[in-house]
Design goal:
Elements (H helix, E strand, L loop, with lengths): L14 E4 L13 H4 L1 H11 L5 E5 L8 E7 L2 E7 L5 E5 L14 E3 L3 E2 L6 E2 L5 E3 L19 E7 L2 E5 L7 H5 L2 H5 L8 E10 L3 H7 L6 H4 L7 E10 L5 E7 L14 H8 L15 H12 L18 E6 L3 E6 L2 E9 L7 E9 L4 H7 L20 E4 H5 L7 H17 L14 H13 L3
Length: about 450
C-alpha cells in the first residue's frame, strides 16, 4: 500500500494523569506474588474480603427468584432478587452442614433448597423449611440459621458484593470511574457472549496484561490499523483503579500514513454505506467523519449518544476496577472481564469475559430507512441470553474456541509469562514508563497486603 508522506507525524508524548498514588508505594514487583501459595492465601484472607468484587450482571437478577453465584477462592457468594424487588447477597453455604446451596452459576428458583438435606431458604435468605424439624433437640432457630448476608450494590448493570462491613459504599469506592463508565449505558447494550477460560497463569498476570500497552505492537499488530496506542492517555486513580483512553479510527503515529484506508477502516466505512475510495489521500479525515456520522445516524437507529462526547464516538476506553475487573468501552460495544484465582494453586486462574453490543431498534431503524449497521450481520446479538461457555486455554490455542483475536493472542502468551515467573533466572520485574498502570496497581496491592 502506498503512502502520501514518508513518515507519520512525530509521536506525541503519552499523557499520564496521576490522581492518587498508593500510600506506601512504590514496591518491587516480585516473582513470588505470582507463584507463592502464601501470597495466594494472604490475598484470600486480606484482599478479596476487604474490597468490592464484581459478581455479575444486574439484568441476570432483575426478577424475584433470579440468582447468580460468584465463585472466588474458597468462597461461593449468592446474589438474588427478593420478592420485594431488592438485591440481596449471602454466603452460598447451608447453615445445617455447610453444603453449597445453589450449584449453578445463575438461574431462577422460587426458593433456595440445599441439595444435601433439603433445608430451604427464601430469596431474602430466611430459613423457611427444615425437614423433620421435630427431630432436632433443641429446635432449630430459623432466624439464627438463615443464610448469612453480605453487602451488595449495583452500578451500570454491574452487581458488586463486599464481605467487609466497614468498606466504603460502592460508588465511593469506584470514585471517578462512575462518571467515566456511566455515559456508555451498559444496561442498554445486549449481552452477546458469556465466556470463561481456564488458564495456567496467576490471576494477577491477567490484570497486568490489561494494565499496559507496551506489548500491543508486538502481539496485536492489527491494533495499529485503527488505534493510536503510542499516544494513549493514562489515568491513575485512588484505591488502585486505573484508566486508559486510546484514539480510534486513526493510524498508529509510528507508522506511515497510507494513501488508502486499510481493511479495518474500510469495513467501518462500509457499515455507514460509504465508499472507502472517497478517502484516498485523506485517511486522517476518517476519525472526525466517523464521529459526525455516528452523531447523525444514532437517533435514526434508536441510539442516544447525548451523554458521549464526539471523541468518545471513535475512541476506546478501558477502566481497571481494583482488584480484578476490567471494563472496556466503545459507543456500541463493551467488554467486562474478570480474573478469578484458583483456590489452592497460584499458577492457575479463571478469566471471565462478558461481551456486549448495542443493537439498533428495529422499529426505529426500519421506519427511517437507515442502512447503517454498527456490527456485521454475522456478529449480531443472539435472540436470547447466551449460555455460559467454559473451556480451557488449549481450546483457544488449538482453535476450537475464540474470545476475539486480541484475547486469543493474549491467551497464547500469558501461560509463558507464568512459566517464566517460576524460573530461578527471574526475581523482579523492570517496568518501562508505559507500564505505570501495572506499577500503580501493584503498589495498591501491597497497601492491602503490607509486609
Amino acid at each position: 500500500m502506498s503512502t502520501i508522506r514518508p513518515t507519520a507525524p512525530p509521536v506525541s508524548a503519552r499523557a499520564t494523569i496521576v490522581h492518587d498514588a498508593a500510600p506506601s508505594g512504590p514496591h518491587p514487583i516480585t516473582a513470588a506474588r505470582y507463584i507463592d501459595t502464601d501470597w495466594l492465601r494472604r490475598e484470600f484472607d486480606e484482599l478479596f474480603p476487604r474490597t468490592w468484587l464484581f459478581a455479575g450482571l444486574e439484568r441476570d437478577v432483575a426478577e424475584p427468584g433470579e440468582y447468580l453465584v460468584l465463585e472466588i477462592g474458597d468462597e461461593s457468594l449468592l446474589v438474588s432478587r427478593t420478592d420485594d424487588g431488592e438485591l440481596a447477597a449471602f454466603y452460598n453455604v447451608c447453615q445445617h452442614r455447610g453444603a453449597r446451596v445453589m450449584v449453578n452459576d445463575r438461574g431462577w428458583s422460587r426458593q433456595f433448597v440445599c441439595p444435601y438435606h433439603g433445608w430451604t431458604y427464601e430469596n431474602d435468605g430466611r430459613l423457611s423449611v427444615v425437614p423433620d424439624a421435630d427431630r432436632f433437640t433443641p429446635p432449630v432457630d430459623c432466624a439464627a440459621r438463615s443464610l448469612r448476608p453480605i453487602r451488595v450494590e449495583a452500578f451500570s448493570d454491574m452487581v458488586f458484593v463486599c464481605l467487609d462491613a466497614d468498606a466504603p459504599p460502592l460508588l465511593e469506592f469506584l470514585g471517578p470511574l462512575v462518571d467515566a463508565i456511566a455515559p456508555y449505558d451498559l444496561a442498554g447494550m445486549t449481552l452477546t457472549a458469556d465466556q470463561t477460560v481456564q488458564l495456567d497463569a496467576n490471576w494477577k498476570a491477567v490484570v497486568d496484561n490489561f494494565g499496559e500497552l507496551y506489548h500491543v505492537e508486538h502481539i496485536h499488530p492489527q491494533h495499529a490499523e485503527v488505534f493510536d496506542c503510542p499516544t494513549a492517555e493514562i489515568h491513575l486513580y485512588d484505591r488502585g483503579h486505573t484508566g486508559l483512553i486510546i484514539d480510534g479510527h486513526v493510524v498508529n503515529t509510528r507508522l506511515d500514513i497510507p494513501e488508502d484506508p486499510n481493511l479495518y477502516m474500510t469495513m467501518a466505512l462500509q457499515r455507514y454505506g460509504i465508499d472507502a475510495a472517497d478517502y484516498t489521500g485523506r485517511v486522517l479525515d476518517i476519525r472526525l467523519d466517523v464521529q459526525r456520522l455516528r452523531r447523525e445516524h444514532g437517533p435514526r437507529l434508536g441510539y442516544d449518544y447525548a451523554a458521549l462526547s464526539d471523541e468518545r464516538l471513535t475512541d476506546i476506553e478501558q477502566y481497571n476496577v481494583f482488584p480484578n475487573t476490567i471494563v472496556t468501552l466503545q459507543p456500541d460495544d463493551a467488554i467486562i472481564m474478570r480474573a478469578r484465582p484458583h483456590p489452592t494453586d497460584p499458577n492457575k486462574c479463571w478469566w471471565d469475559k462478558l461481551s456486549f453490543h448495542r443493537q439498533p431498534d428495529p422499529a426505529v431503524s426500519e421506519a427511517a430507512g437507515v442502512t447503517f449497521e454498527p456490527h456485521p450481520r454475522d456478529d449480531r446479538a443472539p435472540a436470547e441470553r447466551p449460555e455460559h461457555d467454559g473451556f480451557t486455554q488449549d481450546d483457544i490455542i488449538e482453535g476450537r474456541k475464540s474470545m476475539t483475536i486480541t484475547i486469543d493472542q493474549d491467551v497464547h502468551l500469558i501461560r509463558d509469562v507464568q512459566a517464566g515467573m517460576r524460573s530461578r533466572g527471574f526475581d523482579t520485574a523492570r517496568l518501562c514508563d508505559d507500564e505505570v498502570r501495572v506499577q500503580h496497581y501493584h503498589d495498591w496491592l501491597c497497601h492491602h497486603l503490607p509486609g
